[in-house]
Predict the structure.
Amino acid sequence: MVSETTATMTEPVIQMENLNVYYGSTLAVRDVNINIPYNQVMAFIGPSGCGKSTVLRCLNRMNDLIPSARVEGKVTYHGRDIYSSDVDAVDLRRRVGMVFQKPNPFPKSIYENIAFGARINGYQGDMDELVEDSLRKAAIWDEVKDQLKKSGLALSGGQQQRLCIARAIALQPDVILMDEPCSALDPISTLRVEELINQLKDQYTIVIVTHNMQQASRVSDYTAFFNAEATEQGGKQGFLVECDTTKTIFNNPREKSTQEYVSGRFG
Amino acid sequence: MTSPNQVLQGDSCQPNAYKFSPALPSRYKTDGIFKALAWAAVVISLTVLVVLLADVANDGISRINWNFLTSFPSRRPAESGLLSALVGTIWVMALVALFSFPIGVGAGIFLEEFIADSFFENIVEVNIANLAAVPSIIYGLLGLQVFVRWLFPITGGRTILSGALTLTLLILPIIIIATRESLRAVPSSLRQAGFALGATRWQVVREIIFPQALPGILTGVILALSRAIGETAPLITIGALTFIAFLPPLSLQGLRTTFSVLPIQVFNWVSRPQAEFHLLAAGGIIVLMVMLLLMNGIAIYLRNRFQQNR
């Protein structure tokens, strides 16, 4: 599976090899092999509990923050194993940014929301310029340029989410992870974020988890389909079914379960 | 609250609709009963408080004057004042605030943000919850042994420093618990956002979590200080004096002078046989309560100020 898809991809930024994720002694996701190509949009789709968010959080080591979480296998970023002892999670997260399901701007001004990440990471350049540039790239500058001192929480949900994207962009990452970025937004805000994703992929590699298959088909170049099966203990175990170009996954998938999922027959 | 007597009429299309029995009058009645009970609870507690305050004010207000605040205690009730106790209380409370804020808040932050959910944290948590419930006189005994006797070279015995350290121990558990509750109330999505931007744990705590939790932490600290200001038992245990006719010098040496505080002065006056001293006690209680109100006022002011800054 890996070798076939690799052939169609450009140079991968992130590679997952035989990735297993445990919570305590429970194996939550198993056998994930995905290559995430450079400056493309990769979508993770699948039913609830299939571990797509869990896998996403392995890519910037956010799972480190859950004491019981444990990762097996290999995740490389530009060829380096990010779970090896010489890679620092704090440094990694500057390069692999993240946008969350629910917009979570800091209870600070719009300006500070952007400047915060840059400041704590020791940004030496012109802060005003960085803030403007990030807000422009996130297509929210025109809406907020006159109210940069206003609290980020005063914005609408869709604006907050674009502010969070701008906040991630400000750190000049090469990868942006998005965990269901539109699930808390109305359709118009969703559309704007999707347009934004399309613009951003020229400069950034984007991995997006989504429940919405239309969204996956609209924004992504590649799609990984995850599924879950019940375990004997009554929990759920997620696994990767297949990963290919979005076109193939939606029109001509190899696995029957993928076909059923993308045509809306379950999940 | 008005309760409509008439239930909406109309032919429902749902076959099982008749199985609902709205019983609105009795449901509204239950509402009313509980509302009345809650009211009664408020009235009872307020009445008790008002009666107490009125009684004390009635006895003591005539005693409150400049002389009362600026005289030392005396055998003669008419000349007696509470200057040394008032100053003693201010000294002790300032020191308690100075010691307990950094230690309590620091411990709370460490437990909640740095080692949450570890085995060690669970053990410490249970112990702190227990410590918060330990009677204050036990802290007095601890203070007597540790601060007055063992640390005599530093504290100088039954001094302001010993008293302040004892009261600090007493309120530390309360401050730690309040700090942790306030930190816990900050949404974890903000922590995640901070970490995802490559912040270290300290940066997340310092820049995002702590400012959010500060109003709640301050409230907890002031409530704890309000408890400390009224404590008598532990200070009597460590041997605070009831008759002090001098003020501590405003220097480090001041920490090592013997002292009295308002509750002890009040306690002393109440236990005298002469009725005049009882009036002095009422006056002392009023002064103590005004100090408490001032502290709570400051707490509310600070809380509002920090909340506006969000």
Notes: The two ends of chain A are 23 Å apart (CA to CA).
